[in-house]
Amino acid sequence: MKIQTVLCPVDFSSLSDTELRLATEVCETFGARLVLHHNLAAAAPGMSKAWEWEGAHLAEGISEIEAEKRMAELLARIPQGIATEARISRGPVALLLLYLVEELNADLLVLGSHGWSSEEHASVAERLLERCPCPVMTVQEGKGEGSTFRLRQSNLGQPVRAVVATDLSEPSRHAVTYAFELARQLPLELHLLNVAAARSVAPMATMGYARPEPTEYAVDLVETQLKELVPADFEGKVQVHVEIGRAAEGILRSLQSLDPEFWSWVSTPRAFCATSSPMTPPARCCTAPAARCGSSRRARRREDRRRACARRAL
Length: 314
Fold this sequence. Notes:
Number of strands: 10
CATH superfamily of the largest domain: HUPs
Largest sheet: 10 strands, mixed
Strand content: 15-25%
Order of helices and strands: EHEHHHEHEHEEHEHHEHEEH
CATH class of the largest domain: Alpha Beta
CATH architecture of the largest domain: 3-Layer(aba) Sandwich
Number of domains: 2
Distance between the termini: 31 Å
Shape: elongated
Strand order of the largest sheet: 3-2-1-4-5-10-9-6-7-8
């Protein structure tokens, strides 16, 4: 795996400190350059709660001079040896970030998430997770902001516990492969998780077999499939887990039980809005693989318009 460019958008809130720390650790590990970005435009309601709390920034946005000053302060905190760059723009946040990812040929986007939105309103983080052409690493507000949280090691010096949720589809296998590549560079304690729908478990368990506990057999079968995803150099070092039920609820149950510091998934976070209970993932940091963009003519025209709009805003 090669990570050569990391893009890290900052809004100068307390969450930006955690974003910067994680991005710096990735750059130190992979020898990548770090590009910081700040958008001068005020955030729309529901898109950045930290900006809602900072009334002055929400009302008018900080001046470009002030943004440059704060950006210089952040750059001064980055360890020597890491190549850095700063970008300041004004315009639609998600649109500009997607354009910058392409322009910079970024290998990773490190993003602070101020909380998942409702079904009626997609947050900036969700839009980026759905459309970003490179992997996205997000840190949850209030969950990774402690000064002891590190990606390279836990606060006790132990490996960072990481849960990788997979539905065993081809896209999710890509996410699993990405997680193992990260684990070869970072001290991650990997846990593979699959949530099997109850309606799909019974046929799989009973087909051609007369067993008194079909669900238990199906769980064993899925565990075997998960173990087959583990590379030879990780044998005996990875734990597998199988939940039965709805995907979102099963993932959250496992996250609450395992209490990981880091987790990865393929499905968009909008899936977590499917139930009436609060579905904010409890992990401090999570990542999603690159989005698969549509190849239709309409999709290409839409992407061309998006790029043109972003270029005008920069």
